[in-house]
Amino acid sequence: MKKILSIILIIASILSVFAVTASAKTQREQEITVGKATPTVDAEIDMAEGWSAPLYINTMSMSNCWSTAPQTTEGVMYFAYSEEGLYYAADIVEDVHATYIDGTPTDGLNSFVYSTGSDDIDYSYGYNGDVFVLAFDVERMWYNAGYTGNSSYSPWYCVGLFEDGTAKMYRQIKRNGLDITEKVEVAATVTENGWRLEAYIPWDVVIEDVETCATREPVTYSKEMLAAGDYTVYAQAVYHDRFYDKEAGEVDTWSRYAAVAEWQPDGRPGSESSSINIPCYGFTLNMTKHSLEHRVITEPYIYDAGKVELWCTECGEYVDSYNKSVENNVGEFDDVKAKQWYSESIRYCAQHKYMDGTGYRLFDADATLTREMFVKILFNLSNNSEFDFTEDIPYTDVVKGSWYENAVGWAHLTGVTSGLSETTFGVGKSITRQELVTMLYNFCKYREYNLDIREDALPQFNDVNEVASWAYTALSWANDRGVVSGDNLGNVLPRKTAQRKEAAAIIERFAEYVVKAEYATSAMFLY
Q1: What are the distances in angstroms from CA 145 to CA 114, 138, 226?
Q2: pLDDT 10s per residue in the chain (527 long)?
Q3: Do residues 105 and 344 touch, judged by C-beta distance below 8 A?
Q4: Quick check: 447 and 518 in contact, CB under 8 A?
Q5: CB–CB of 172/125 below 8 Å?
Q6: Beta strand 185-191 with 156-161: parallel, antiparallel or unpaired?
Q7: Cβ-based neighbours of 212, under 8 Å, separated by 6 or more
Q8: Is the dihedral of CA 391, 393, 399, 402 positive or negative?
Q9: Which of 348, 358, 349 has the alpha carbon at shortest distance from 323?
């Protein structure tokens, strides 16, 4: 019976692999508090001027649209508003490490591109270099007026930077565009690894643009309401990424990224609609009456993020908080430094939704890996999350409704792992490297992967005698397939407690070296 169920689950997981392939990779919606302020528009982004907490642009918050090129851009956005208009800023990092689906790195292929004129490449973004786009829907007025289907857009505000240092803004709606630089304030500058911009759009311009662009059903914004605060804005960021194509000798489009909501207002996934449509706007801005001051509570320390609190300078109330990232962090997490041996593995596992963080934008790379953590990782790899496996869990230490409950039920049912006893799973218990590999080996049995060992190389390690007899075959197989290696002293460390960063590296290698090979031989592909 279990064999039949295994086959059913394998088929279901294969089908869900293709469902994942067709959908956008997004993280949950980001939501921030926006305060009243009048920052100077000079492309400096001075946090003392009342900007909001950051919104993050990265592979977990943005969907790659209309392109097969990987996302090589990340950054942060900030907002403020006054009685007269909306302020926003963005600090963009270009040429972030990524790889094509075949593993080829993109390093050095895509950097910032100045605009030199109007958009004669795609005819939608105003200018022909890199363009940063903001669109928004106040209180879902556009959505509630019936702008819910494909090709439902509110006005786009497109910013480009020219070689002479001039920044310009183009208002676009369905190719009915207009350069509005003289009506707004906009500044931008090139940085060491990308570019930075600030912009101010008067409410009068926003109201005029809405009236012009709402061609099917009227949408009416009130300046009194916009100036007062206490309302919600649903915003969309689109980055139109250009690059210099050396072979063609000209600038072309690399890709486009958009902040897609996890869920549309009607309950459908954001991935089921075009990523730039109004129902998919992925950022939530709570426009408060407060004026914000950023207070650093704790500074980041080595691999631990710090904390910043937002307080109102007028009423003295606490408003919100956010992480202060470690220096040179990866875009997805505030506590993971870039260019560490494990950094890209963590990004890989997060982007593919194999591993979750331990908190908002926190990964805790050095933390001990527990049994339920690794079972959840394997469950994520199985693509069976739409099924319920919680009915017959025999373990009394598994908490009902917990984030790991369904994964433990799946692992018990499929034989990926058993409990420490008939009634105890071992929730919270750390896992060793050889225990981790044994679970991975059992996962391959469940998926009916090829488990042949081409060469047993374990005897070459100094500590091979420490490998438990029950783990030897699994560890030999993992080493043979390049999934697990030893340290630079010639030890395979079977009894060492595994850390989360080690798990990320192992899972990346497993997905690349084992899973892809299995799907290739089955005329299928994982991603």
Answers
A1: 38, 12, 18
A2: 334 444 434 433 433 333 332 233 335 579 999 999 999 999 999 999 999 999 999 988 888 877 778 999 999 999 999 999 999 999 999 999 888 877 788 999 999 999 999 988 887 899 999 999 999 999 999 999 999 887 788 999 999 999 999 999 999 876 678 999 999 999 999 999 999 999 999 999 999 999 888 888 899 999 999 999 999 999 999 999 999 998 899 999 999 999 888 888 998 888 777 778 899 998 999 999 999 999 999 999 988 999 999 999 999 999 999 999 999 999 999 999 999 999 999 999 998 899 989 988 999 999 999 999 999 999 999 988 888 999 989 999 999 999 999 999 999 999 999 999 999 999 999 999 999 999 999 999 999 999 999 889 899 999 999 999 999 999 999 999 999 999 999 999 999 999 999 999 999 999 999 998 887 665 433 33
A3: no
A4: yes
A5: yes
A6: unpaired
A7: 155, 173
A8: negative
A9: 358
User: In the structure encoding, which two tokens stand for residue 241, read together?
Assistant: 């990424």
Q: Cβ-count burial of 471 within 10 angstroms (0-12 exposed, 13-18 middle, 19+ buried)?
A: buried
The rounded distance, in Å, linking the Cα atoms of 28 and 24 is: 12
Per the CB < 8 A criterion, the answer to whether 78 and 52 are in contact is yes
Burial 84-101 (b: 16+ CB within 10 A, else e): ebbbbbbbbbbbbebeee
